[in-house]
UniProtKB/TrEMBL annotation, chain A:
Its main location: membrane. CDD domains: TM_PBP2 (cd06261). This is ABC transporter permease. It is found in: Cell membrane. Keywords: Cell membrane, Membrane, Transmembrane, Transmembrane helix, Transport. Belongs to the binding-protein-dependent transport system permease family. It comes from the Bacteria. The chain crosses the membrane at residues 14-36, 77-98, 110-132, 144-162, 183-205, 254-275. PROSITE patterns: ABC_TM1. GO terms for cellular component: plasma membrane. The keyword Transport applies.
């Protein structure tokens, strides 16, 4: 929004921008370090120190990780479950959040309480495993997408976002002959793009990071998402020096571990900038007046 | 309303049931839309709930949950009777409070700061920078903090030494532990936490700001009267939900930061449960501790929700 | 619009269900199938990459042992959880690699796995191995699986030979010698760069925990027991209550006080320590015998003149070294999947065959010309070590093998051969941990806590946060909090097992 060009405002802007920049730098520097190390030669890294820019540039770490195509294939798996999984998430979550956002719906409170309850209490990994197994979902990618179809937290917050939309819009649409489903899809969702963008990001990141469920539910190594492999590389690096339950394991050089981190986080980090345009202001502008 | 209240004080008649049915049919699409989600919760959340009974058994994996012996409140009694209990409680509680007091407001402040930036490019640039640490695992975060704060050549300590001739064992001194933990959390999560507030902020009608400016309001008043109320309900709901996890301190971060010298202030329920549950295979015991935390969380959420509604806010339910 | 959306949801959900159902069918766990080919399903630990399906190594194994292998790789990142889930759901393959931890030992005690002890004598290779391997995996005196053999003892001093020569040092064996050596290394600028930047020794975070504990190893060499000592009267004494172990603590304390030890060792991560060793600023470390060779390789990359050498951590009389468990896991046979004793015997024979010369060579050396070349009558040399690590090591690390048994000698670098020979020698002098297979309910209940308390107390003592009387008080606390009960229970179980 535009502000008057007073001195007070100018100073504020200056300080604000400065602070934000400083915060931005402080938060991102360690990642620059990680990035730099991943592109540095092992020799320079061994000398120690905090590297921000590689003096001896090297792609050795990346060449190592990509030397087999398991990583590439698992990347495909991860992309698949992230895209399809997030779609399932958004569908299920918004379908359920919308009715719960209508204050006049009977039975709303008990249902919400029921949802809240699942946020706090859980039966645990083993009973859930039995459920997944009895549905014959084990060893399939669905075991990574269906048991996490709705996050209770996201559901509740989305419900609140839906509630913020003025009732007049719903009334107007119904007068025009829409039923509830089309109100959701034609009116509410388009107006909730910032919220939808936010939750797609949350869900997508959760899918991208999933590795534990994959190990528990999926036995076929060809179906493992990328995080399972990446964690293996990093874990082997953390084995105790000189003594592991695995004979003579070579400790992975720092460069490889850093390359793993870069590779496992950059793809998902890039999702956010794409979603940022949905955070544009004043989306509801004119919607009520019209 | 009055008719309904009157209706409730006499025995249910056919017309009450008709009213109920009428409402359901009127909103049939809404109920239909609820079906997939409800199915999900029933199948994947409520059916496995029998697992909670583990906390009241002497569970062993091969006997299964249905076959293990029932022991009632034995684990709870043991837990509360542990000499360590109060230390754990104090540590967990203090960290939880610190988190809510110091950590929770910061993403809001940061979001407001970012909201004030007019240049879209700069704003997006900072946003992208600030949420990067969220993706870095705790192992790396702790590693980076080690490099900065160790007394053996850590950047911060070297600086301190040059300025004051003293070094501070940040990583070993119990007095610094909580500060380090909260500091790390802030660094790692503050950027990510702004996202949801930015989403809420983008729902604010910009014309309101225009109108306020014309009326002579400076930016502080605009923030106070327009921006904050717009995200107030988001803040409230997030706070309530946060209370549900009140006693959850996160295991990985603390586990990595524990040392012999700060264990007294650092050991929390989650790390305790890890030692008991995983390394000693005491599933039931750790389930009991988890259940205890959940019950406390539930009480807090219900209480906070009721309070919020008294203030006219939209709660969880 | 609404109709299509509804349809989409319906279709998606049905798709989910149908795909799920279809995926469920098709995988079958057969018994010994037609033609006498045995179906063997195994769940083992993933070690890096997963070999491609139908790869040559697996084919060779299948051909020799007349089996069809169905291998399920379990990532290390969630290994124990996965095993727990498998035990809980009785969803196990015929052979499963487990670790000797409370969940597994309690499962063994409760008859989840077959007992194989009495049957072992029928298998020539398995029964030819050192009894110690099998003793160390006993539960209540019974053997419930085949160990995945690893060295019985391999604690070695790995040191910078060039520095030792320059400063006229010998490998230390007594506490005083250790002190002097470390002091000299730290103060006499062995790398000659004029800077006070060398360490004699560096400690790191977990220096006194688990079977790889530095303090235990050093202590044993000085005469302390390996974790527990059985006294003449049958009672049990923990290592930290022995005077020899105190010598270790006092040594470290002295080094710390005189700033000869890295002051932040309590938070020093082992991977950071690794960096230091590789960059050549540390004079001595204690590690695995075979690591000498790789240490030299890594050091040479950064410091071409550095020379590494190894010596067994054997103490002043050259005859005491800390023994280890001797296994990196146990191959167990779940009763829920292995239905008959006959099937069990077939599986044991499968494992036994893996130690025959042809298979042992395959597992330890790889395939001729692909991974190694013959360089003598009974000697081979690795030609493609990377390929070996990728293709063969995953199998080798999970199946029974013993270096030097039924396999041609490996021509290696001097340090490599020395390491292998040293590991063998150390096995002769290994001091075992008498409590390794004993059962103490109190230890199961709160053992980890108590271990932690004492480990912390040791660190505090070294750092000077508590003094001698403080340390003794900690020991007393340990005793009262359950330590004394553990001692009694071990003594009792020991008596029982000895009968």
């Amino acid at each position: 929004m535009q502000q008057d060009k007073t001195w007070g405002n100018r100073i504020f802007d200056f300080v604000n921008h400065g602070l934000l920049l400083l915060i931005g730098i402080v938060t991102v520097i360690p990642f620059i370090y990680i990035l730099a190390v991943s592109f540095t030669s092992p020799h320079e890294v061994a000398k120690g120190g905090f590297i921000l820019f590689p003096k001896e540039f090297s792609l050795a770490a990346y060449r190592y990780i990509f030397s087999t195509d398991t990583l590439i294939r698992s990347l495909g798996v991860s992309v698949y479950i992230t895209v399809i999984g997030t779609f399932i998430n958004l569908l299920f979550t918004s379908l359920m959040a919308y009715p719960l956002s209508r204050r006049y719906l009977r039975g709303r409170q008990p249902i919400l309480l029921g949802v809240l309850f699942t946020m706090l209490f859980s039966g645990g990994m083993i009973p859930t495993y039995f459920v997944v197994k009895s549905l014959h979902l084990t060893d399939t990618l669905w075991s990574l997408m269906l048991p996490t179809a709705i996050s209770a937290f996201n559901l509740i917050v989305l419900k609140n976002f839906f509630q913020a939309i003025p009732d007049e819009l719903e009334d107007a649409a119904k007068i025009d002959g829409c039923n509830d489903v089309s109100v959701l899809f034609r009116i509410v969702l388009p107006l909730s793009m910032p919220a939808m963008a936010t939750f797609s990001l949350f869900y997508a990141v959760a899918h991208w990071n999933s590795f534990f469920s994959a190990v528990i539910y999926i036995n076929d190594s060809e179906k493992w998402p990328v995080q399972v492999w990446l964690r293996e590389i990093v874990i082997l690096a953390q084995s105790r020096i000189g003594d592991t339950s695995i004979e003579e394991t070579e400790i992975q050089p720092l460069t490889i571990r850093m390359a793993v981190i870069v590779f496992s986080t950059i793809p998902i980090m890039l999702v956010y900038p794409f979603l940022q345009k949905h955070f544009a202001k004043g989306v509801m502008l004119g919607s009520v007046k019209g | 309303m009055k008719a309904e209240t009157a209706a409730r004080t006499r025995p249910a008649t056919r017309s009450d049931k008709n009213l109920l049915w009428r409402d359901i049919i009127k909103n049939r699409w809404l109920y239909i839309m609820l079906i997939p989600g409800m199915l999900y919760f029933v199948i994947f959340k409520y059916i496995p709930m029998y697992g909670i009974t583990m906390a009241f058994q002497d569970y062993t994996p091969y006997k299964g949950i249905l076959g293990s012996d029932w022991v009632g409140f034995k684990h709870f009694q043991r837990f509360f009777g542990e000499p360590q209990f109060w230390t754990l409680f104090r540590n967990t509680f203090l960290l939880a409070i610190y988190n809510i007091v110091f950590f929770f407001p910061l993403p809001i402040v940061l979001a407001l700061m970012m909201n004030e930036v007019r240049r879209e490019r700069f704003k997006r640039f900072v946003q992208t920078l600030v949420y990067v640490p969220h993706f870095v695992s705790w192992v790396v975060v702790v590693g980076v903090f080690y490099m900065l704060f160790t007394t053996e050549g850590g950047a911060i300590n070297e600086l301190l030494y040059n300025l004051t001739g003293q070094k501070v064992a940040f990583l070993l001194e119990p007095g610094w532990f909580r500060t380090m933990i909260v500091g790390q959390s802030i660094w790692k999560e503050v950027g990510w936490g702004t996202i949801i507030f930015l989403a809420a902020l983008s729902g604010v009608d910009t014309q309101l700001y225009e109108a306020a400016r014309i009326d002579g309001a400076n930016r502080w008043r605009q923030t106070w009267h327009i921006t904050l109320p717009a995200i107030r309900s988001t803040i409230v709901i997030l706070l309530i939900l946060r209370l549900g996890n009140f006693l959850d301190t996160g295991f990985e971060q603390i586990f990595l930061m524990l040392t012999p010298t700060n264990r007294d202030v650092g050991e929390v329920f989650d790390t305790y449960v890890y030692t008991k549950g995983l390394t000693q295979a005491q599933y039931s015991y750790s389930a009991a501790v988890g259940l205890f935390k959940s019950v406390v969380g539930l009480a807090l959420v219900l209480g906070a929700n009721t309070m919020a509604k008294k203030f006219g806010e939209e709660g969880v339910y | 619009m609404k109709a299509t959306k509804k349809k989409a949801v319906a279709v998606l959900s049905t798709l989910a269900l149908v795909t799920g159902l279809l995926a469920g069918c098709g995988s079958d766990e057969g018994q010994a199938a037609e033609g006498g080919v045995q179906n063997v399903s195994i769940a083992i630990a993933q070690v890096g990459d997963v070999p491609s399906k139908g790869n040559e190594i697996q084919q060779k194994i299948e051909a020799y042992t007349n089996t069809k292998l169905d291998i399920q790789w379990i990532p290390a990142s969630a290994y124990n959880d996965k095993i727990n889930v498998m035990i809980a759901s009785s969803d196990m393959p015929k052979i499963v690699k487990v670790q000797y931890n409370p969940t597994v030992t309690s499962a063994m005690r409760n008859d989840v796995f077959w007992e194989v002890g009495p049957l072992l004598k029928d298998y020539k290779n398995l029964s030819a191995q050192n009894e110690r391997f099998f003793d160390n995996i006993k539960v209540e005196g019974k053997i419930y699986g085949v160990p995945v053999f690893s060295d019985i003892a391999r604690a070695t001093v790995i040191y910078r030979k060039d520095w030792f020569e320059k400063l006229n040092l010998k490998v230390p064996t007594t506490p005083d010698e250790w002190y002097e050596t470390i002091k000299t290394l730290a103060t006499s600028d062995p790398d000659g760069d004029g800077q006070d930047n060398t360490f004699g020794l560096m400690l790191f975070k977990k220096y006194n925990e688990d079977q790889y504990s530095f303090t235990t190893r050093l202590g044993v060499s000085f005469g302390a027991p390996n974790k527990w000592k059985v006294e003449e009267d049958g009672s049990f004494t923990p290592e930290f209550m022995t005077p020899e172990y105190m010598q270790v603590l006092d040594l470290l304390k002295r080094l710390y006080d005189e700033k000869l030890l890295n002051q932040d060792f309590a938070v020093f991560d082992s991977t950071e320590a690794e960096k230091k060793y590789d960059s050549g600023v540390v004079g001595i470390r204690v590690g695995v015998a075979q690591n000498g060779k790789s240490q030299q390789e890594r050091l040479s990359k950064n410091n071409p003149d550095g020379v590494v050498d190894i010596a067994g951590l054997l103490g002043p009389n050259g005859d005491r070294v800390a023994g280890q468990t001797g296994n990196s896991g146990i191959l167990a046979f779940p009763k829920s999947t292995v239905k008959s004793e006959e099937e069990l015997k077939n599986l044991l024979s499968f494992l036994d065959k893996l130690m025959d010369p042809e298979m042992a060579t395959l597992l330890m050396r790889g395939m001729e010309d692909k991974h190694y070349t013959k360089v003598g009558e009974d000697q081979v040399e690795m030609s493609d070590f990377d390929a070996f690590q990728r293709e063969v090591k995953p199998y080798r690390d999970n199946l029974p093998y013993v270096e030097g048994y039924n396999v041609p000698k490996l021509k290696d670098t001097e340090l490599g051969e020395k390491g292998t020979a040293l590991a063998k020698e150390l096995a002769e002098h290994a001091v075992p941990n008498p409590a390794l297979t004993l059962y103490s309910p109190t230890y199961g209940d709160r053992g980890a806590d108590l271990d932690q308390v004492i480990a912390d107390a040791q660190t505090k003592y070294i750092m000077g946060k508590i003094d001698q009387s403080g340390w003794e008080k900690e020991i007393e606390n340990w005793g009262n909090a359950g330590g004394n009960k553990i001692r009694e229970e071990y003594a009792e179980d020991y008596k029982k097992q000895a009968q």
